[in-house]
Specification:
By secondary structure, this protein is α/β, with parallel strands linked by helices. The chain is 36% helix and 17% strand. The chain has a single domain, classed as Purple Acid Phosphatase, chain A, domain 2. The chain is built from 10 helices and 14 strands. A 7-stranded mixed sheet has the order 1-2-8-9-10-12-11. Strands 5-4-3-13-14 form a 5-stranded mixed sheet. A two-stranded antiparallel ribbon has the order 6-7. Strand 6 and strand 7 form a beta hairpin. Helix 1 crosses helix 3, helix 1 packs parallel to helix 6 and helix 4 crosses helix 6. It is globular and about 50 Å long. The mean pLDDT is 96. The structure holds manganese (II) ion. The site of manganese (II) ion (MN) has 7 residues, from helix 4. Manganese (II) ion binds next to helix 4.
């Protein structure tokens, strides 16, 4: 795999793309509160976490061919905070800017979902991975790339862009799409109607709040899926968040977990007009390695 060329962009161009993409997210015609309701025609491509994997992002775009397929939607989430080797810096900010540019180019087809790493970036909640503080590393990398003062304007535009993300997608053929789902033990405190709101408080977005629970949960037994399926009137759930060595996992006849941040990463395209089964969804899973 060859690494993509570094993004060549000025701070002003980055701020412009991020600000325009944020406005487009907020004005999305499909948006109902913080839920995107996809139409009953065309196709959607759900991905797993990308964590700065620009080579897989490039493959996704080649597969999706958005310019030639105007009824196809692509769902992106958890684009930032990449796994770095010692001596390297986090370059995932490049993917966030590229994705914002893509939204500007295809505003009706490209959609974002809130994720825990991106949420942490905007509430300033520190995440430690292997002794590293990923928020600190990310901010430092942006300031280094653009210079301290312009870098600060880029970071501010990134915060506003992430703030504009919806929380979930619902398809007319009864599929729920979000970064994750709340934990079973959060079920009593979690408010499924959080997705109908547009504005969130700090309490909603930090530990104990429903936005936080939606993007951070990792324990989704059958009973939880049954309860959420009723609350949201859906049959199946597509999420990311939990790393999958082989790109995906299928659970409880209702849930598929995707991950897109490595060479065995996967994504899932499906038709919005056809009745879906878990088998049909599972058969549609594609590997990035299959895409030329
Ligand atoms: Mn996550």
């Amino acid at each position: 795999m060859t690494a993509p060329a570094p993004l060549s962009i000025t701070a002003n161009q980055a701020v412009d793309a991020l600000s325009r993409a944020a406005a487009l997210n907020r004005e999305d015609a499909l948006r109902d509160g913080s839920l995107l309701r996809l139409p009953d025609y065309g196709q959607v491509v759900m991905t797993g976490d990308l964590h700065g994997h620009r080579a897989n992002f490039a493959k996704l775009l080649r597969y999706a061919a958005l310019d030639r397929t105007p009824q196809r939607h692509v769902i992106l989430h958890e684009l930032i905070h990449e796994e770095v080797r010692p001596g390297q810096t986090d370059q995932s900010w490049q993917l966030l800017i590229e994705a914002a540019q893509l939204k500007c180019e295809f505003p009706e087809q490209v959609h974002f979902l809130q994720s825990n790493h991106e949420l942490a970036q905007i509430v300033g909640q520190h995440i430690s991975k292997g002794g590293r503080d990923v928020i600190e590393e990310y901010n430092t990398a942006v300031l280094y790339a653009f210079g301290p003062a312009p870098g600060r304007t880029v970071l501010d535009a990134m915060t506003d862009f992430i703030d504009s993300y919806p929380l979930a997608v619902r398809t007319p053929n009864r599929v729920w799409i979000s970064h994750s789902l709340p934990n079973e033990w959060d079920r009593a405190a979690f408010d499924p109607a959080i997705v109908s709101r547009r504005e969130f408080t700090r309490a909603d977005r930090t530990d104990g709040g429903s936005v936080y629970q939606l993007v951070w949960g990792r324990n989704h037994p059958m009973a939880l899926l049954d309860a959420l399926g009723k609350a949201w009137d859906v049959d199946f759930f597509l999420i990311g968040h939990q790393p999958q060595e082989m790109g995906f996992e299928v659970m409880h006849d209702r849930l598929i977990i995707l991950s897109s941040e490595h060479n065995h990463g996967a994504f899932l395209p499906f038709d919005l007009s056809k009745q879906m089964t878990l088998d049909a969804l599972t058969r549609n899973i594609r590997k990035f390695v299959e895409v030329a």
